[in-house]
């Protein structure tokens, strides 16, 4: 077996794309600083000097009035500190919502305010001490960054030495049929199905917090759907019924204006464009995730409903309607990738998240695999090259996100920002996925795991590691690392114990997003997402369960092989006689049906039969053609 893929060589601390943007941002700031210094030097107005100092740095204009030993010192020093804090808050707001204008406006507003809040007690020394202090602080920051970068380069060398001793273990493309879902897993699946099967306008049980960041409704729908698609592809390929209905509902719920109305505001303050159509530009956090949601659903179910023109309809309250289909979404994404300056697309204005790009790219590869086309083959080389060159930190970790405007690439999010991308990387570049997993799993030991994982549930912002445990477990399952997956799921249970009420299991403190990703981990297997993306299941030939009442009948397994249906069913709401429909039969042909008893039933003229079966406990159902 070949050695694991090594990290590419890097001669510089910063990647080429980040280096260019950092240099441009630095040059722009140097120009502003120089202009401000000149203005402060030539003017005789204290107010103008305060404005100039305010241009040098956010809130620095207040230092013009902070004359030591005078009554104005303390309040203006406090204003300086508050001004810097407000600027930091604006940067956070920019990150959270894409509002690039926020830090710029705050900076300028503070400069104007400083010019108008003087009390006549100016401090002339501030005119020269401020730029000297700023330059000194920038020099210290640069020295610290270079020192940190040198340590990171040494860590990259150690990482490659570690990888050189590891072996490549790519995920299997093919695999024998999966085992059935456990009774506990069915209780967990019911939590997701209860939300998916409610009327389209209802979002009971979803978490309405904000629509800009990770707690947004769209992500809850996305990942519930991803999890159900994996369950259907791996465990229930011969069960359509309400599972297909649930998936369709989750797509249609994304059409609700409350889900995508955030985009108009985000486009306005991020792109400076009044754009109410959420699809065409810089919004893969909606369009890319939705395209993957539909592509996985259609690959797992065999449905082609959303391939039809106009099948996705976004109706704005103004009366304007924007209609699309899955092929059109995929074409928009593919075209965006081909012209993307960084090789990857902005998830929101001016911010590029590799994870969002990996999820979005899965839709292109999955659609090509099911419908044909060479979109992914044209994109993949550049995507891979830029991912390796520009979106890996110097120490070899995946960059959580990058500002395409100024080149900022903070390393936040803990180990989950290294583990979770491996789930989607495995569907695109299995060798990179395995390498990054080998590096990330070193943090997932019983001694280090809790400290390494992000302590905030990204689905509801509560102080719990539920989403980190669940997301890392889903990646561990996909990579075939059962040891780590078990460790993480056990830790999840200790941190957020399950409760079961009326045969539905939930974790009271965990977000709905965390529940969805946990079920994805439990329903999936090694290479599950890789298989559904690269080799989507063929349309079922032979019997399948086309109708079943929810939650009266819960399927733990349903497969068709050799022209026969094999399913395992449980009662979901007490024991009793339940009716279901079997489709995919030859009209008029007789079939042996075995459940609690054995019968011989002929299919009707439409190739269906209706069965009443007694469900009291785990029941195996077999439907096979009679000789």
Please give a handful of descriptors for the protein shown.
627 residues; alpha+beta; Glycosyltransferase; Immunoglobulin-like; 3 domains; five-stranded antiparallel beta sheet; three-stranded antiparallel beta sheet; 21 helices
Could you please describe the fold and organization of this structure?
With 627 residues, this protein is an alpha+beta fold. It has three domains: 16-142, no CATH class; 169-534, Alpha/alpha barrel (Glycosyltransferase), CATH 1.50.10.20; 544-625, Immunoglobulin-like (Sandwich). 50% of the residues lie in helices and 11% in strands. It is built from 21 helices and 14 strands. It has helices at residues 16-42, 46-56, 73-97, 101-115, 126-164, 183-196, 217-234, 241-253, 257-260, 262-271, 287-301, 326-339, 354-371, 375-390, 416-428, 430-440, 449-452, 466-478, 482-495, 512-523, 528-534, and strands at 312-315, 321-324, 351-352, 402-403, 499-501, 504-506, 544-547, 553-561, 564-571, 576-583, 590-594, 598-602, 609-615, 619-625. The strands form five sheets. The protein has a five-stranded antiparallel beta sheet, with no helix packed on it. The chain has a three-stranded antiparallel beta sheet with strand order 7-10-13, with no helix packed on it. A two-stranded antiparallel ribbon has the order 1-2. A hairpin with a 2-residue loop joins β8 (553-561) and β9. The radius of gyration is 28 Å and the shape is elongated. The model has no long low-confidence stretch (mean pLDDT 92).
């Amino acid at each position: 077996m070949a050695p694991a893929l090594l990290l590419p060589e890097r001669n510089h601390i910063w990647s080429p794309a980040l280096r260019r943007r950092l240099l441009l941002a630095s040059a722009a700031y140097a120009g502003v600083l120089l202009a401000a210094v000149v203005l402060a030097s030539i003017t005789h107005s204290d107010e103008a000097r305060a404005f100039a100092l305010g241009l040098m740095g956010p809130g620095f204009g207040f230092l013009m009035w902070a004359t030591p030993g005078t009554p104005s010192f303390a309040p203006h020093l406090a204003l300086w500190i508050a001004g810097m804090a407000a600027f930091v808050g604006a940067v956070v707001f920019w990150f959270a919502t894409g509002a690039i204008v926020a830090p710029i406006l705050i900076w300028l507003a503070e400069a104007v305010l400083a010019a108008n809040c003087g009390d006549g007690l100016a401090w002339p020394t501030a005119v020269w001490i401020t730029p000297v202090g700023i330059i000194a602080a920038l020099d210290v920051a640069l020295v610290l960054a270079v020192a940190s970068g040198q340590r990171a380069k040494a860590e990259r060398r150690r990482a490659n030495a570690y990888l050189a001793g590891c072996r490549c273990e790519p995920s299997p493309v093919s695999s024998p049929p999966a085992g059935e879902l456990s009774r506990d897993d069915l209780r967990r699946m019911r939590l997701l199905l209860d939300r998916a099967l409610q009327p389209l306008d209802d979002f009971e049980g979803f978490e309405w917090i904000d629509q800009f960041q990770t707690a947004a409704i769209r992500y809850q729908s996305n990942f519930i759907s991803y999890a159900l698609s994996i369950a259907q592809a791996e465990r229930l390929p011969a069960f359509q019924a309400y599972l297909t209905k649930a998936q369709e509902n989750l797509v249609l719920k994304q059409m609700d204006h409350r889900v995508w109305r955030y985009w108009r505001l985000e486009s306005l303050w991020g792109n400076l464009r009044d754009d109410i159509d959420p699809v065409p530009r810089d919004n893969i956090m909606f369009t890319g995730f939705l395209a993957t949601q539909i592509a996985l659903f259609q690959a797992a179910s065999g449905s082609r409903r959303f391939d039809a023109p106009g099948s996705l309809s976004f109706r704005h309250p103004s009366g304007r309607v924007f209609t699309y289909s899955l092929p059109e979404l995929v074409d928009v994404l593919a075209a965006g990738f081909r012209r993307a300056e960084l090789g990857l697309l902005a998830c929101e204005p001016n911010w590029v998240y590799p994870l969002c790009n990996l999820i979005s790219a899965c839709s292109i590869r999955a659609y090509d695999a099911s419908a044909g086309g060479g979109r992914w083959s044209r994109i993949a080389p550049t995507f891979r090259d830029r991912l390796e060159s520009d979106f890996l930190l110097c120490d070899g970790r995946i960059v959580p996100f990058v500002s395409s405007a100024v080149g900022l690439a903070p390393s936040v999010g803990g180990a989950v920002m290294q583990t979770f991308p491996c789930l989607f990387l495995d569907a695109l570049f299995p060798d990179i996925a395995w390498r990054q997993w080998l590096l990330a799993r070193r943090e997932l030991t019983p001694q280090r795991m809790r400290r390494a994982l992000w302590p905030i549930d990204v689905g509801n912002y509560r102080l719990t590691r539920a989403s980190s445990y669940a997301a890392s477990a889903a990646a561990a399952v996909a990579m075939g690392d059962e040891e780590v997956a078990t460790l993480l799921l056990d830790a999840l249970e200790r941190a957020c114990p399950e409760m079961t009420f009326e045969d539905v299991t939930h974790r009271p403190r965990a977000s709905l997003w965390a529940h969805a990703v946990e079920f994805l981990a439990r329903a999936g297997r090694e290479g599950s997402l890789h298989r559904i993306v690269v080799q989507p299941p063929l349309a079922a030939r032979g019997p399948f369960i086309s109708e079943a009442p929810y939650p009266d009948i819960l399927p733990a397994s349903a497969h068709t092989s050799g022209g026969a249906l094999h399913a395992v069913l449980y009662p979901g709401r007490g024991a009793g006689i339940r009716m279901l429909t079997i489709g995919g039969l030859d009209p008029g042909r007789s079939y042996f049906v075995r459940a609690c008893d054995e019968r011989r039933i002929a299919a009707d003229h439409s190739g269906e039969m209706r069965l009443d079966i007694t469900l009291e406990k785990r029941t195996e159902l077999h439907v096979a053609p009679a000789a």
